[in-house]
Amino acid sequence: MTDAPSRQDGHDAAGSVFTQLLNSGAPDEETHIVYRGKLVFAVLNIHPYTSGHVLVLPYREVADLNDLTPDETTELWATVSATVDAVRSAYAPDGANVGLNLGRAAGGSVPTHLHVHVVPRWTGDSNFMSSIANAQTLPEALEVSAGRLRAAFGRHLPADA
């Protein structure tokens, strides 16, 4: 067994799925990127737990918090805070989950590129949606979620943006 990244890790020779997304040249409207900072960005999760599930991550592909530079760390957490504010503004949830899964054993689906999940939550919702035949049940399309969040980010940008 090898420790080399694999497609199963959301990574191949071209980098993580997030690096590939950034390098694709596709417009933010197509990639569902809802915010771009100097060192980090926010993108909708394409397999969301709920509408408005956002991932905040550095442009640079790193696996662990200790691999971030001080500037990346500062901007990451400022953007996480702004993302929580944007999600609250766009969705009016009863609460939010904010967290990371560092490493495959912790549940990280892309362990080579750390990302912070911001998930709006409502009283009585469930932790995940059941899916059948790769179908997801969400109350709105990703494009609609992205538009709502881009508008909300305009009102809740990180302080140094």
Query: How many E-type strands?
Result: 7
Biggest sheet features: 5 strands, antiparallel
The helix content is: 25-40%
Structural class: alpha+beta
Q: Which strands sit side by side, in order, in the main sheet?
A: 3-4-5-7-6
Q: What portion of the residues fall into strands of 2 or more residues?
A: 15-25%
Distance between the termini: 44 Å
The average pLDDT score comes to 84
Count of helical regions? 4
Rough outline: globular
Low-confidence spans: 1-11, 129-133
SSE succession = EEHHEEEHEEH
Q: For the CA atoms, what is the radius of gyration?
A: 15 Å
Give me the secondary-structure topology.
Blueprint: E1 11-12, E2 15-16, H1 17-23, H2 28-31, E3 33-36, E4 40-44, E5 54-58, H3 70-91, E6 95-99, E7 116-121, H4 142-153
Antiparallel strand pairs: 1-2, 3-4, 4-5, 5-7, 6-7
Helix pairs in contact: 3-4
Q: What can you see in these coordinates?
A:
The chain is built from 4 helices and 7 strands. With 161 residues, it is of the alpha+beta class. The strands form 2 sheets. The protein has a 5-stranded antiparallel β-sheet with strand order 3-4-5-7-6. A two-stranded antiparallel ribbon has the order 1-2. The protein is globular. The termini are far apart. The N terminus is likely disordered.
What descriptors fit this protein?
161 residues, two-stranded antiparallel ribbon, alpha+beta, globular, disordered N terminus, five-stranded antiparallel β-sheet, 4 helices
